[in-house]
Amino acid sequence: MRVHRVFVPHLAAGERVLTGREAQHLAQVLRVRPGARVRAFDGAGLEADGTVREVTGLRVTLELGAPYAREVEAALRVTLAVALLKGDKLAEVVRRATELGAVGFRPFVSRRCDVRELSANKLARLRRVAQEAAKQSGRSVVPPVAEAAPLAHLSLPAPTLVAHPSAPRTLGETLAALTPPPTALTVLTGPEGGLTEDELAALTERGAHPIRLGARILRAETAPVALTAALLIPEGL
Fold it and tell me: Which residue numbers delimit the Ribosomal RNA small subunit methyltransferase E methyltransferase domain (predicted)?
């Protein structure tokens, strides 16, 4: 029998009544019936197995077992600092990078950004996208999406890698030079027009490591996903 994943904050054993988006998805899209198996996750690392007890309109009642920790997160914690992008591109970055295992997103505004702010509605949507991608990919942790900040105000935890086509070292060369091997990285990628030379110089002065992605120049929405994949997929090989 298929097991349906469902987001349930503040997990606890016993009866749980769902309303809103998750209940609507179960009732109208998946069309679950009493007895259907579910696996709830709280977005913070816990899961619980259970069954559907009742479906009444857009109200779904679950019976959940004891929560347990399920460790599926990557050993290397990759946070993406991504410039605001036009259209739906940032949502796609959040979706794909969450599936790959990124642990957080920190949008920022730089000089060449065409988009200058991240509205409350767009931020809420990005957070829903991260939740949906975590559910689809079998993760029990939902990566947080921060409010947008100016690039100059963005904190840069060491080590931070900055993607730029003029960087003297590749990703592999830079990683090989980091000792000891890091357990966490921040990866920063620019907007459609790229980072300016002044911005790159300022980031380097703050301790960031410029890196290039081979001989090709990737789109602003491709670079963060490609870097996440390059860093995290080898763990499964």
Answer: 74-231
Share of the chain above pLDDT 70, in %: 98
What structural domains does the chain harbor?
A: 3-69 (2.40.240.20), 77-236 (3.40.1280.10)
Q: What span, in angstroms and rounded, lies between the C-alpha atoms of 190 and 31?
A: 42
> Taking the C-alpha atoms of 20, 21, 26 and 27 in order, what is their torsion angle to the nearest 10 degrees?
50
Contact (Cβ atoms closer than 8 angstroms) between residue 40 and residue 7: yes
The C-alpha atoms of residue 126 and residue 33 are separated, in whole angstroms, by 30
State pLDDT tens for residues 17-59.
999 999 999 999 999 999 999 999 999 999 999 999 999 998 9
Average pLDDT, the chain: 94
pTM beyond 0.90: yes
Q: What share of the chain is helix, strand, coil (3-state, %, to 5)?
A: 30, 30, 40
Q: How far is Cα 173 from Cα 168, in angstroms, rounded to an integer? A: 10
